[in-house]
Structures are given as structure tokens and as C-alpha cells.
Design brief:
This protein is mostly helical and 288 residues long. The chain has one domain. The chain contains seven helices and no strands.
């Protein structure tokens, strides 16, 4: 009935009125469609703007994270190089003095002092710990990055033993001792044979320090690829050491490297022994 009434009503309008009503309806429809499209376009543009802001913020954060890594790695490398240079100088001076003394010749007193070596080592180990903290705080980049903590822990383990054990016995008594008033205790160089022992210890020490420097290069390669690779559409290549025995720390080999450090280093063997002793003490039932 209603439809019939509407039809009769529509039939009662003249042609001009019908045309005007149809035109008005078309205009309203177009307006509604256009307004709806405008709303959708505004929403799309707003989302794109939010995405662009978020992407810019991610890029800014990535760049800041990389700059932090560069600063920490540079600090570690600088302290490592300074310590290595001090060890080389001490090694050479002691060797020359020992040889000259054996031949009855005059010799220059070594300039190395054990407290100074301790201070330089303390600066190196502090820088190494800052490197470890950096790695631990950047696990969000890639959890495998903890392999760098393992690598530096091996360096610290080996150098700690050298500085606080073997150097105390073999080096501290072989270089001049400075008294609080600035004077030097009477000094006699070590034998040539003992100087050779000192040389071997220093070479081991320097090799471990050099490893730490190389690991800073490795971690920066990984940070560049992970944080900046998408920005520049490029990947940085890993280093290729001439000595095949030297390890390159890379994330795609993290599991293999972790097993190697655990099985092939004194750090790994010491950890295994401590874990076994701890388990025997506190979990005796699980060992049966």
C-alpha cells in the first residue's frame, strides 16, 4: 500500500519537478560518496603519517644504538692498544737490559713500573666490562649477540691470570721498583733465560689483548648489518684473519663458537669444573 501511495505521489509531480528531485538526489549521493572517500583518504594519510613517524623514530634509535656501540668499542680498543704498547716496551727493555748485564755491558734501566701496568690493565678491564654491558643491553637486536660476551670473558679470564698470577711471580721482581719518595730501589736485570720467560708471557698477554680489539671490529660489523643495513641496502663483510686459528665472531656461527669456547679454552674448562663442583655440592642426588 505504501509503495502504491509513493508511486501515485511520484506520478503526480511534473517532469521539471521530477528532474530537479533526481538531480538533487544525485548531488546528495555524490556528496555522501565523496565525503566518505575523503574520510577514508584522511584516515589513510593519517596512518601513513604515523607509520612514517614511527619509522623515523626506529631509524633514529638504530643510529643512536650504533653510535653507542662505536663509542664503547673505540674505548676498549684504545685502552687495549695502550696496554699492549706498554707491555711491548717493557718486554724489549727488560730483554735488552738482561742481555747487556750478562755481557758485562752498561744498560738502560727499564722505564716500566708494575703499579703503572696494573693501572693500565685496570683501565682495559673496565673498558672490557663496558663492552659486556653494551652487549647485554643490546640483546633486542639479536639474542645471539651474547656470543661477544663469551668472547670477551675468555680474554678477561686469560689476562687476569697473567696479570695477577704469572706477572706477579715473573715480572714484578724483574722491573725497577719505585719507592713512595720517588727513588728507585737498587735494580739488577733478570737473567737472559728469565727475560725470555717474560717475553713469552707478554706475547701471550698481547695476543689476548689483540683478540679483544678484533672482537670490537666483529661486533661493529654485526651492528652495522643489523641496525643500518636496511637503510643503505648493503651488508658489511666480516674480517678474514691471516691466522686460521684466530676466531672471527659472527652471529651466524654463534652456536658453533659457543661450543668451541666452552670446550677449547681455559675459561670454558674452568666454568665446567666449577659447575661440576657446584652440582656435586648442592645437587648430589641428581648426579647418581
Amino acid at each position: 500500500m505504501a509503495m502504491c501511495d509513493l508511486h501515485l505521489l511520484w506520478s503526480g509531480f511534473g517532469a521539471e519537478i521530477k528532474a530537479a528531485m533526481i538531480g538533487a538526489a544525485s548531488t546528495v549521493s555524490v556528496g555522501i560518496i565523496g565525503f566518505g572517500g575523503l574520510i577514508l583518504q584522511m584516515r589513510s594519510q593519517s596512518k601513513q603519517s604515523r607509520d612514517a613517524i614511527a619509522e623515523n623514530e626506529r631509524r633514529r634509535l638504530k643510529a643512536a644504538m650504533y653510535e653507542d656501540a662505536v663509542s664503547v668499542c673505540r674505548d676498549l680498543a684504545d685502552n687495549a692498544i695502550e696496554l699492549a704498547n706498554a707491555l711491548r716496551m717493557m718486554m724489549l727493555q727488560v730483554g735488552y737490559a738482561a742481555q747487556a748485564h750478562q755481557n758485562g755491558q752498561q744498560y738502560d734501566m727499564p722505564t716500566a713500573r708494575y703499579p703503572v701496568l696494573l693501572e693500565k690493565y685496570g683501565q682495559f678491564s673496565d673498558a672490557a666490562m663496558r663492552f659486556v654491558f653494551l652487549v647485554e643491553n643490546r640483546r633486542v637486536v639479536d639474542p645471539r649477540i651474547l656470543i661477544f660476551r663469551t668472547a670477551i670473558s675468555v680474554v678477561l679470564h686469560d689476562t687476569n691470570r697473567l696479570m695477577y698470577s704469572e706477572f706477579v711471580v715473573n715480572v714484578m721482581t724483574s722491573i725497577p721498583v719505585q719507592l713512595p719518595d720517588g727513588s728507585i730501589c737498587p735494580y739488577t736485570p733478570p737473567s737472559v733465560q728469565h727475560a725470555e720467560v717474560i717475553t713469552q708471557l707478554c706475547e701471550r698477554f698481547i695476543a689476548a689483548i689483540d683478540d679483544a680489539v678484533m672482537y670490537t671490529d666483529d661486533v661493529l660489523v654485526e651492528f652495522q648489518n643489523a641496525l643500518l643495513g636496511d637503510l643503505f641496502a648493503n651488508q658489511v663483510s666480516h674480517r678474514k684473519p691471516l691466522d686460521p686459528a684466530k676466531k672471527v665472531i659472527r652471529l651466524d656461527e654463534a652456536a658453533e663458537l659457543d661450543r668451541w669456547f666452552a670446550a677449547s679454552t681455559d675459561w670454558g674448562r674452568t666454568n665446567a669444573r666449577i659447575e661440576a663442583e657446584t652440582a656435586a655440592r648442592f645437587l648430589p642426588g641428581k648426579l647418581r
